[in-house]
Every structure is written in C-alpha cells, then in structure tokens.
Prior knowledge:
Two copies of one chain form a homodimer.
Chain A: E1 6-10, H1 15-27, E2 36-41, E3 54-59, H2 67-72, E4 78-81, H3 87-92, H4 94-115, E5 122-128, H5 151-168, E6 173-179, E7 181-182, H6 195-205, E8 210-212, E9 219-223, H7 225-237, E10 248-250, E11 254-257, H8 258-269, H9 271-274, E12 277-279, H10 283-290, H11 299-303, H12 312-329
Parallel strand pairs in A: 1-2, 1-4, 2-3, 4-5, 5-6, 6-10, 7-9, 8-12
Antiparallel strand pairs in A: 9-11
Helix pairs in contact in A: 1-7, 4-5, 6-8, 8-12
Amino acid sequence: MQAGPRILITGAAGMIGRKLTAALAADGLGGRPVAALHLVDVVRPEPPESFAGEVAATVADLSDEGVAEALLSGRPDIVFHLAAIVSGEAEADFDKGYRINLDGTRALFEAARRQGGDYRPRIVFSSSIAVFGTPFPEVIPDDYVLSPRTSYGVQKAAGELLLSDYSRRGFIDGVALRLPTVCIRPGRPNLAASGFFSGILREPLNGQRAVLPVSPDVRHWFASPRSAVGFLLHAATLPAERLDKRRCLTMPGFSATVAEQIEALGRVAGADAVALIDHVPDPDIARIVDSWPRAFETPRAVALGFRAETDMDEIVQVYIEDELEGARRS
Amino acid sequence: MQAGPRILITGAAGMIGRKLTAALAADGLGGRPVAALHLVDVVRPEPPESFAGEVAATVADLSDEGVAEALLSGRPDIVFHLAAIVSGEAEADFDKGYRINLDGTRALFEAARRQGGDYRPRIVFSSSIAVFGTPFPEVIPDDYVLSPRTSYGVQKAAGELLLSDYSRRGFIDGVALRLPTVCIRPGRPNLAASGFFSGILREPLNGQRAVLPVSPDVRHWFASPRSAVGFLLHAATLPAERLDKRRCLTMPGFSATVAEQIEALGRVAGADAVALIDHVPDPDIARIVDSWPRAFETPRAVALGFRAETDMDEIVQVYIEDELEGARRS
C-alpha cells in the first residue's frame, strides 16, 4: 500500500483547523491514513487523540522571516493554509492584516517555490466570500468581479491571485476555496464581524442570551463547520486537471435572512430560545455586513463535487449533532 | 487664480510617460497650468521643453527601500503611477516582475499613507487588460472576474485591489485604468509580448519590414497613445464621488483582428506597405497572446467621459499625425 500523505495545517488551532485535524486523524484522506500531521499556529495546536501517524505541533507566525521556509523544509504533500486575521481585526489593524493575511500567504507560496526541484505541494487556501463587495447582483455568479469592501477581503483576493500565478508557473498546485460564513461556529465568539450570525443561534441553543446587531432582513450565505471541513478535504484530493484554469472557487452554501435563521431556531428549539435574542443595532457591524454578499450561484464548485447544506434547519441540526450531542457523549 | 497642481510621474521616461509629460507641460491639467512636474524613472527622464513650472527629474527604483517615501515627501497633489516591467519581462523574470510591479506599487501607496495628516493624493495607476484571462466571453463586461494568465496581469490585478483598499481607507484617492494595448506605439520595439500589434503597422509605415508572430485572425483591443494619455489626464481630474465604489475601470478601445489591422494599413499606405509584413509564427508569443482578451463592453468608463478611437483607420491616422507629420514638422 502506498504511504499516506504528509500534511501541514496553518491556523491549526482555530475552529476549522481543529475540526480538520480531527477528521484527518480519524478518517485519513481520500481513503488512505495520513502519515504525518504538522500543526502550526500562533498558539499551540492540540495534537489529535489516538492518531497512529507522526505528529508535530509548532508555535510560529508565518509572516516572520524564515518561518515559511522552515515549515516547508519537510516537503509536506498537502498544505491546508487556514491561518488568518479575521475581518474585524484586519479592519481595526491595517498593518497586521496585511502582514498576516497577505505577506504570510505570499511567504508560504514563495517558500514552496524556493524548495525547488519537482516539489509542487497541493495548497488548499481558505479564502472567503468577503472577496465580493458592493455593488453586486442579489445572486452572484461564478465569474463575477472580486471587488472587496474590507481589507480582509482585499487580502484574501490578492492571495487568490498569487495562488493562481504560483500554480500556473508550476511552483505550487493550489486551490482556493471561498468559504461561506461558517454557521453555527461552536465555542466562544471571535473578533469576526460575522460572529453574530452564529451567536444568535448558538447562545440560545445553550440557554444563553444573544445579541443581534443588524436588521432581521439582512441576508447572507452559510454553510456548517462540517461542510467547511468537507470542502477542504475534497479540495485536497481534487485532480488538478479538473480545475481547468480556475483554481479559486466559490463554495456552495445556503442563503438565508437573519429572520429565517431565527425561524429555524424556533422550529428546532422553540419560542423560549428565540426570546433569548436581544436586538441591539451596531452601526459599525451593520456597515461591514452591508458590504457582504447575500447569495451565489456556484455551478463550478457543484460540478467538482463540493456539497453544502440545503436549508437552515439542517445547519442548526448539524450543530446539535456535532457539538451538543457530541459534547454529551464525550 | 488657484495654484496649479504639483504632479509626480513614475515611469516618466517610458513612451506614455513622455507623451503625458509633454501634454501636461503644454496644456496644463483641467484648465490650469501645472505648478510642478517631478519625473521619475530608472533611466533619466527628459524634462519638458518650454515649461514655466518647477521641474525635477529623478533616477530611482520605486521598489528600493525609502524611495517611495522620498518621492512623496513633497506631497504631490497628483501621482501618475506608470512605472512597470512589461509582460514579457515579468514572465521571464518572476522575481523582478513582483518586485517592481507589485512591491513598487504597494510601496507607493504605503508611502502616501505614511505621509499622514490629511494628505490624500489622487493616484492614477496604469493597469492593463491583461488582468483578464481565459476562459472569458468574446466580449468582456465591466463586472467580469479578473483571472489573469500572466504574472504581469496578476501583479496589475493585485495593484488594483490595493489601490481600492488604500482609497477606501482614506490613505489615497486612487483610480486604476485598464489600458487597452496601445497601438501604434512609436519608436523601437520593447519587450512586451504585445509589441507586434504596433510593429506590423509602424515598421511598414516607415518603409521597414515587420514580423507578425501570430495568426491574422487573432483579435485584440486597441487604443492610440493619444487616447491613452487622454485617459490618464481625464482620470486625474475626475471627481471621486463619480467613481461610486469602483475605482478600477476598463478603458474604452477598438476591437480588431490582425487581418483588420493590416487592411487599415493597406487603405492608408497601400499594398506595398502590407507586403513588408513577414508572417513568422512564434509559439511562445502566440501562447501569451492567446490568453488575452479580445473585446470589451465599457459602459462604466464611457459614462465617466473616457473616449477612444472607433475604428482602425483612425488609430493608424493618429500615428501619422502625431509621429510622422509631427516629426517632419520638428
């Protein structure tokens, strides 16, 4: 049997990074066990439980001199590049956003190039639907211009351009996935301006009060954490020739208004849960969210086999299965 | 009378830079004489003849440490950022292309930001239709995705993203113009892969033989040097509020096949001129050109008052008026 892949994950301590690590450790990739997992983040990533392969955890900042070269010196077959400063923080700290999100990404691609020889790792880059900005149509097609209205979106869009060029030149074998807003994010709120989309469901499902900072008629594009991990795993094994010349793909998701989110919550958890949501408008968050897309057509990703939830109830149900029932079992 | 603008031009020694300098010196900008012209390039730019304002010429590379800061320390009102490595060279020298075209552009925007206070120069950035790449429709609309298939195109597209973000954040007041292929370029061929589009007209008009490296049915998007300078001047005085949120504009032009270019040459200069063209296919150039767009719809730029030629004969005629008759007069 062929040896399994050696895998590097940046941003491994983040929510998606942890779920991806667990999935790779438990299920392997493309039907093969993973030979080695190298987990990297600015805080120490937890090694997976009961994993038979090699494992290493490194605390490092990809944008620091020499870090990217050191990380790629082991020539991993696959790199999941998830490390990023979130949208709210990139907006608040201009320099840090560019350093981590743009320079860090470029350093990673450049380090792969500097390895030389026939080294050409599959790099799966987590981009975002924040690469799209107003004005845009209500439903955004696959070929729509990237005109981000946040620094975060600009940094991701520039990363996509670099990924395409480094791939075309033969230095890497990249795939960029524009992830929908992940909902319901488990755990504590983070600094992302999009955090409330999860909070208004998660907190009530846990019996806590939640704050809704925008109007209930705000519409947005969602997929569960389980789908997001599925996208990453699928992208890691997708044959390059199937990508044609477009390596940056908008991922499928489900379009819902905040009101529709709350209706789904009501159906699953009852009126008492809905009553836990406090509407406290926040103009700063409303302004950022207003520049974000609402719905997509994603025929390219669907044809390549990417799949997401198809209604809001399913998205709520995934949280209950993966977080609440899972937590009770463990 | 209000003092005229102080203007910095990067890439001032290039063909468009020289024509822009001459136009600003002779005609001013927006009906006002120019108070100061600072010309910068990696080779010494020629100061304009008979110009009443201040003039300075600097030999410098924008991507070198501290150069951008020094250039902006005089706080010019308007910056024309034309400096770039051309497409063929950016493809041949990966590092140099990124250093000059991406890092140099970023250094310029960053230097404007570092000036601080209320300094917010209008920066007119010469982007290119090379930001578009296959697959694309035969006629590309204003909102089409930027998916360049050359490193040059990626560098220009990334520059556009930065320009938009630095403008949105209030650090600069940028406008990016995606220039059509400029035709007929005067003077000697340069390293651009697009050079033959001018060469097959220019050389025969000067009684010289010319090489056509691609098929006559290759279609492309053209404007004269006179139009290109006109775009830059118009962009320099366009009120920011008229740009809405889209500061990166595809410029109008004229779509023609190589065969139609040659027919126009025949109409203007006769069959003897056409007979001077040798068809010598070059697969490398054909491959690059094959990834370039052929025609555009540019309603956004047209609504903002940008104008180009509307047929190929006019494009040939502009060369004769501005270069051959002008040369005879001088």
